[in-house]
Amino acid sequence: MLGFESRPQLLASNAASLYADPLDRVRWKAQLEKTGVVKGFQKRLRKRDGSIIWVEDNTRVVRDERGRIICFEGSIQDITQKKLVEEALQESQRKYLELFDQAPVGYFEYDRFGRIYNVNRTQTEMLGYSRDEILGHYVWEFFTNPEPGRSQILAKLAGALPPAKAIERYYRRKDGTVLVGLIQDRLILDDEGRIEGIRCTVQDITERKRMEEELRRAHDEKELLIGAISSLIIRLDSGGKITEWNHHAESTLGIPREKAMGRPLDKLAILWEKERVVEAMERCLRTAGTERLEDVRFTTTNGKEGLLGLTFSPVVGSSGKLEGVLILGADITERRLLERQLAQAQKLEAIGQLAAGIAHEINTPIQYVGDNVKFLKDAFQQMVELVERFLGMFEGLNCGHLTPAEARERALSLTRETDLEFLEAEVPRAVDQTMEGVERVAKIVRAMKEFSHPGKREQMPVDINRALESTVTVSKNEWKYVSEVVMNLEPDLPMVNCDPAELNQVFLNIIVNAAHAIAEKVGDGSNGKGTITISTRTNGPWVEVKVEDTGCGIPEEIRSKVFDPFFTTKEVGRGTGQGLAICYNVVVKKLGGMIFFESKVGEGTTFFIRLPFRKGAENGGAT
Fold first, then answer.
1. Confidence band (pLDDT; 50, 70, 90) for 576?
2. How far apart are CA 285 and CA 239, in angstroms?
């Protein structure tokens, strides 16, 4: 055991030198001297080769007749292996207790009455109580709602309810806050299979529940917000299937959300211009660019026709990959109606301003028509009288009362009295002037009719040159005192498909603005007039109208605002600021054309209007 080669070799050794720890010998000897015996004394001895072994010592004292210690006798047993097993077990228990206390989940055990008799440190830290404050208490005392919890615990201990498996339990912390735990139970059974208690693990999911609640609330708020938006919202995935369909889309298009979700947009029975919508969606998916559709015709849920404005925007994920399309839309039926009413009001305002001038323009030819008619009336009366006197003279000849010579003399006298030569010269002239006056009036009336009542309010082929001539005629009183108008119109100009009333309004606004700009520069025109030059030509796929004035020009700082609604530099009562805004809306948004200008302060401004006259013209815009 001790590694000696022989018994004599061992007997020759000092017993004290065999102790690995000298204090073990001191304690061993002190106990022997005190009680006379040691039993099961464990100590470490050093073998001859220096290695250490554990032994168990059972020794008694041997005394002489006088009670003096003669020697010690006993036995030792090598318990090294046993000791190693015990140490390993202790280390295992230590590690278990360490893991038990430091486990990332709470752990506690309670007996068949519901009293907690074991708890780990994680659980105490989660609840904020010390170990002593928890042990011995009923488990339901820490629930936020103790009474239902007590009934459930006792039912599980009685076997009436199964152990909990991943259910949520709400605990009350010491500071009054709430801990949300995800718990799992395991039954503690005796040898006969009866329930003695329950082991319970608790995972703290308070933060997760808070985040879930915030996410749920954010989702609810998103749904509430989307539902409250007065625009239809449709989201499509990259395959064109619907992933969002808000309440406004439901009420506008007449398809419930549950029937729309997950289905391809082009498969829904929506009464709208499906081809335009699908083409815009596919372009958006193909190019990852924003698409805009105006005036998409659809049928409302009550059977009425309406117009939609739709914007198709690409939805790009964090990785940069195109994930789908977001469609935002609105029923613009009322807005379009209001725009038309506004344009009509603006046109009526312009016509009202022109009315006095038009009346003056008509009055001038009517005045000399009246004067000429009065002259013709008097001349006709003179001619009637002359004819009557000639008839009387012929009767005198027939009756013999007058000789031919007398009749001739009287005829010459009557001719001189009537001034027949004057009538022969002036009557045809008066007739021509009257016809000219009537034609001038007819031209003005015809221009007014074409300007204000061009026919049906729909797009049709329009002669741009004729529209400009009519507009120049009806606006004459606005420009004739301050400028001359020069027309350079290209013959055989292509027809443009548009609403003629709206186009007339555009031309009128530009020409009147030019006249006002010249008036601002030259005053009443008494010291010289300006010039408005109107030209037309074909420019590629466009018909181009150019209106050039020699007015005051547009200052640099306001050029970016001239097409803004309600922006005006005119004094109050002279302009509403809607003229150029209406021009932009008609030319760019409705006709897909372009409107822009060049200007030099003090020298004048030139407006360019380009209108597409054949398919394939690209959309332009104001610059």
1. very low
2. 9
Give residue 614's pLDDT. 62
Range of the domain at 269: 229-331
Together in a domain, 508 and 446:
no
Flag whether pLDDT at 454 surpasses 60: no
Residue 396 falls inside a structural domain = yes
Q: What DSSP character marks residue 231?
A: S
Q: Are residues 170 and 271 in the same domain?
A: no
CB 430 within 8 A of CB 376: yes
Instruction: State the amino acid at position 288 in one-letter form.
Output: A
Collapsing DSSP states into helix, strand and coil, what is residue 543? strand
d(CA 355, CA 475) in angstroms, rounded, equals: 9
Q: Tell me, what amino acid is at 546?
A: K
Please identify which residue in the block is written with the tokens 């181009």. 544
Other CB atoms within 10 A of residue 589 CB: 15
Q: For 364-419, write each residue's pLDDT tens digit.
A: 677 667 777 887 887 788 777 777 777 777 777 777 666 777 767 776 777 777 66
Confidence tier at 233 by pLDDT (50, 70, 90): confident
Instruction: Look at residue 574 and tell me whether its pLDDT is greater than 60.
Output: no
| Beta bridge pairs of residue 43 | 55
Domain end position, chosen among 311, 331, 351? 331
Q: Verify that 601 and 471 share a domain, yes or no.
A: yes
Identity of residue 590 = K
From 427, 328, 411, select the one nearest 373 (Cα to Cα).
427
Same domain, 595 and 460: yes
Q: What is the pLDDT of residues 10-21, one digit of tens each?
A: 998 888 889 999
Contact, 325 vs 296, CB < 8 A? no
Domain endpoint, select from 38, 57, 86: 86
Q: What is the mean pLDDT of residues 594-604?
A: 91
Q: Which residues contact 502 (CB under 8 A, 6 or more apart)?
A: 343, 586, 590
Residues 424 and 475 both lie in one domain: no
**Looking at the structure, do residues 501 and 408 belong to the same domain, yes or no?**
no
Quote the number of domains for the chain. 5
pLDDT band at 572 (very low <50, low <70, confident <90, very high): very low
Q: Do 192 and 286 share a domain, yes or no?
A: no
On the CB side of 486, how many CA atoms lie within 13 Å of its CA? Answer: 11
Least Cα distance to 272 among 287, 252, 292 occurs for 252
**Residue count of the chain:** 623
Is there a single domain that holds both residue 462 and residue 607?
Answer: yes
- HSE-CB at 500 with a 13 A cutoff on CA atoms is 22
pLDDT at 361: 61
Q: Alpha carbon of 467 to those of 108, 472, 489, 501, 505: distances in Å?
A: 94, 9, 11, 9, 10
CATH of the domain at 164: 3.30.450.20
The DSSP bridge pattern shows strands 483-488 and 496-498 to be unpaired
Q: Is residue 426 part of a domain?
A: yes
**Which CATH number fits the domain that encloses residue 493?**
3.30.565.10
Question: Is residue 460 assigned to a domain?
Answer: yes
Q: Which structure tokens are listed for 547?
A: 């209106």
Residue 391: per-residue pLDDT: 74
pLDDT at 230: 63
Q: Is residue 569 part of a domain?
A: yes
Quote the CA–CA distance of 502 and 523 in Å, as a whole number.
30
